[in-house]
Amino acid sequence: MPLLFSRTDKSRIAEWWWTVDRSILAGLFAIITFGVMLVTAASPAVANRIDVTEGHFILKHMIFLVPSVVLMLALSFCQPRTIWRIATLVMAGGLFMMLLVPFIGAETKGAQRWISLGFVSIQPSEFIKPAFAIIAAWLISRQKENPAFKGYIYGMGLFLIIITLLLQQPDFGMTFVITCMFMAQIFLAGLPFRYLFVLLLIGLAGLALVYSSFDHVKSRIDRFLSPETTGGNYQVERSIEAFQSGGLWGTGPGQGVVKMSIPDSHADFIFAVGGEELGVFFITLLVLIYGFVVIRGFRNLHDSHDLFVILACGGLLSMFALQAFVHMGSNLHLLPTKGMTLPFISYGGSSLLSMGFAMGAVLSLTRRKARRTIAKSGFSPKWPSPSMAN
Amino acid sequence: MKHLKDNTAPIMGQRSGALGLAHGRVYFLMAIFVLAFFVITVRVYDLMLLQGAFNEEAKTKLYERRMAETVEDQDSAKRADIIDRNGVLLATSLKITSLYADPKIMVDPPETAQLLTKIFPDLSYGDLLKKFEDKKKRFVWLKRNITPAQQNAIMYIGDPGLAFRDEYKRFYPQGSLTSHLVGFTNIDGKGLAGIERSYNSILRSNAATDEPLRLTVDTRLQHILRREVEAAQKDFSGIGSAGLIMEAKTGNILAAVSLPDFDPQHPQNSESAPMFNRVFQGVYEMGSTFKIFSTAALLETKNIGLGQTFDVRQPLKRGNFTIKDFHPENRILTLPEVFMYSSNIGTALMGEMTGTANLKSFYRKLGFFDKPVADLDEVGQPLYPKNWRELNTLTATYGHGVAVSPLQVTGAVATIVNGGTKVMPSLVQAPDIVQAKEKISSAPRVVSAQTSENMRRLMRLVVTNGTGRKADVEGFEVGGKTGTAEKIVGGRYDHNKRVASFVAAFPIEEPEYVVFVMVDEPKPNKKSYGYATAGWVAAPAAARVISNMGSVLGMPAVEVAHDAAEPLLQYVSTKGGHE
Question: Which of B19, B26, B43, B73 to mutate to test binding with chain A, by most A CBs within 10 Å of its CB?
């Protein structure tokens, strides 16, 4: 394998190249490539429906993809301390904007989540999500070092503020993701199982409360549980058909029809578009790449000796995995429909940037360090590195 | 590169408890996500292969559903036929072809535009070129409803940017005859008025099975009614007119005419406000026709004989208000005389006897205070005093202060004369006879059979001896009641603007049909000796409708031994009638 950089090269880029997890990077670029292809295939149908030019969403996807990738790469160069500082700034800005949302936010489809900045509108809660993972990890790991520091309490307080703001928008999907992410972090931090069990019960009670007090949530869950009696769910029926008609080889990119009948096919149902157009092999490949990135990321954490890194990356990877799982699961009718974006694939500027931020932080924190310790011996699986030819 | 906490990091093998725990739990979380993605993969294989590529049945089902959707898309404008009770076609959908352009893939816009103007001289070259210039658009209508020859010529142009779409267009073979009942659709096949609107979804869903919607209307009677009502309107230079024929027992509407009417094929071309359905939507103060209901209310609620007398010698003064008679009799009248001469004073006195509560509850039972349930969406909301005082009771007995639609009046008369059970007017034929019979037998009773019989005799008396003598048709035993009401213009009654109506039931012994005729703002003519009252305007038209109905329906003229009004003659002192 021809070397891009010499092992002994001490430049920053060379150092980065040898320490960053290139397999995860390769996986993410593969996902991004799938994303460009699927948005290109799905969005013209959506664009035609809302009367913008066919290339509208494709162009906007690209426009957001570039800063997202740049942000990810730039963050991966940063020190953990810098990551934490940036997260604090993002959190402050995000919270400020979320407070503004009820006053100047744009309302779409019954919820107020967006702030318009003239040429683009952004969803502050998307940026709060990764920032919170990093800050909560820092707060908890500080408490582990210095028990006098009440990191858990601060973390919990911040969590409650965020979900209060989210619930009044209302945005149950985001609340769900942040809650699960925070619970994963608390779990990693070593909270005894019995407390986790209590938290789980509180979470289920909250879910039941949301189910009984919000009609649209109730109807979605009812339609998921008993499609025969409640008339079923049009979008999910179309989505299932998309997978069925995809079959072995798929209809070919751009040739599917599901995008004609599902309103948000370029965002909330892009996995179904993929299933229909790419066929079973390529869509399995996509699922495996997501799984690979997640497993590889967690595997790296096992080698880490920094609780902050473990908690932050554990939270961010859980978020990444959970979003992918919920998106695929609702497309496949395994879960009730919940408008959730598929990381790095679904159309959506805020989501793309937020994912760039999250995975940039993961790449940065999991960079291999020169250890003062004896090199680890024994089984250490070799992951295939991406080809560096050409 | 040094890690910021390197100096605090423990040596391998001496990991802190927290770190060790975290490492263990990392694997636990990882296991959960591995499981999650495994489930996703299994489900992908399940849906795409087991339920998809390898499942012929599922594939067939999917194909059929998608085909059905495509067909449905094309046929969205197709609607079921509407027919009358005898199967006469009132509305039907025919397939037509329309031409559109797809500018994005058009090869040679100038040439295509030029060739198109040759086929369609009414299209302008400039307009076409402008439509073709907008390359972003994928769909521009060029010409709806083209002929097969034109389509053939267009195909010879050979430009891929010209395409056709088959559509269904609605046609109304009876034209304006049933315009208010059948209504019309827009160009996309959505019902906008009449049955087309109120039965829109059924007409659409029945299109697939070609199951027509059968109305209770009889086109032959509709034609008779329209002709006679129009003649009455013309004779007396009215601004509009209305007519209704209803089956007395079932409430089925056999004919309903509102003039002016319009051409449902081109509804937008009609002048003035012809869309307005006077029978269903219009509410009018009906005047003396209402005496049928106030008299029935008295007979039903108070135990009095027909010999009851009322002193009508003086105008009736109540507070500032004075009730006068149109033709004062200046004597004491019996109840039948009050009815046949249509005395306002006498009827008002009857109202006082009935009492406000009784009269109101009776009117409510007849449905005069609620929007009627009809098979059309266009029904008028009745008007009545929200703050009902004693005086309102008096005027309401002769039809002032309460405005209802001709549909409501006719239905209420049918209810009174059919033996006393409530009639629900309907325009759409009940699907089966059993159901229709059930509807009649379960109808609530409004007046007793005795009251119903008395009212029929009184109505007959009006035609034999009273104000409605011009409505008599020999051999058909017509009973009825005239009503002339002044219209309210700018908040007060205008003496020169009237609504003249006549409601008839026949044969009066056991009525089969109720006929209603109304002329809006009739003006006196020479033939009527300067009168424009109901007896001159509406009663003769009703008579002509009834005699024509007899021949169409094959009803023989019957000579009866004893006239229905005979038992009442003992209460009537003079034979001379008044208008």
Answer: B26
Question: A328-364: b or e for each residue (b if 16 or more CB lie within 10 Å)?
Answer: bbbbbbbbbbbbbbbbbbbbbbbbbbbbbbbbbbbbb
* Residue B158 belongs to some domain of the structure: no
Residue B287, CB-side half-sphere exposure with 13 Å CA sphere: 25
ipTM above 0.90, yes or no: no
Q: How far is A162 from chain B (nearest CA, A)?
A: 24
Quickly list DSSP for B116-176.
HHHH-TTS-HHHHHHHHH-TT-S-EEEEEEE-HHHHHHHHHH--TTEEEEEEEEEE-TTGG
Please choose, from the candidates B242, B275, B241, B247, the residue with its C-alpha nearest in 3D space to the C-alpha of residue B261: B275
Domain range for B536:
222-571
Q: Is the dihedral of CA B69, B70, B76, B79 positive or negative?
A: negative
CATH number at B264 reads 3.40.710.10
Condensed to tens digits (0 to 9), the pLDDT of residues B7-17 reads 444 444 444 67
**Is residue A5 within 8 Å of residue A13, measured between CB atoms?**
yes
How near does any CA of chain B get to the CA of A109, in Å? 27
Give the 3-state secondary structure of residue A336: coil
In chain B, residues with a C-beta closer than 8 Å to the C-beta of A373 are: 11-12
Q: Chains A, B: CB contacts under 8 A, how many?
A: 148
Could you give the number of structural domains in chain B?
1
pLDDT at A109 over 70: no
Q: What is the DSSP letter of B469?
A: G
User: A294: which 2 tokens?
Assistant: 């997640």
Task: Point out the catalytic residue in the list B93, B98, B288, B342.
Answer: B288
Question: For the segment B372-426, what is each residue's pLDDT rounded down to a tens digit?
Answer: 888 898 899 999 998 998 889 999 999 998 999 999 999 999 999 999 999 989 9
For the whole model, what pTM was predicted?
A: 0.56
Strand order in the sheet with B240-247: B253-259, B240-247, B513-520, B492-506, B479-489
- List the Cα angle A191/A151/A350 in 5-degree steps: 95
User: Known catalytic residue: B288?
Assistant: yes
∠ CA(B41), CA(B47), CA(B51), 5° rounding? 140
Residue of A244, A306, A340, A364 for testing the chain B interface, max B β-carbons within 10 Å: A244
Q: Given the DSSP bridges, would you call strands B89-101 and B82-83 parallel, antiparallel or unpaired? A: antiparallel
Per the CB < 8 Å rule, is B6 touching A369?
A: yes
Q: Residue A85: what pLDDT?
A: 92
Contacts of B34 in chain A (CB under 8 A): 291, 295
Determine, yes or no, domain membership for B201.
Answer: no
Burial call A172-211: b when 16+ CB within 10 Å, e when fewer: bbbbbbbbbbbbbbbbbbbbeeeeeeebeeeeeebeeebe
Q: Work out the burial of residue B289: count CB atoms within 10 Å of its CB; fewer than 13 is exposed, 13-18 middle, 19 or more buried.
A: buried
Name the residue among A131, A150, A149, A139 with its Cα closest to residue A88. A131
Report yes or no on B56 lying in a domain: no
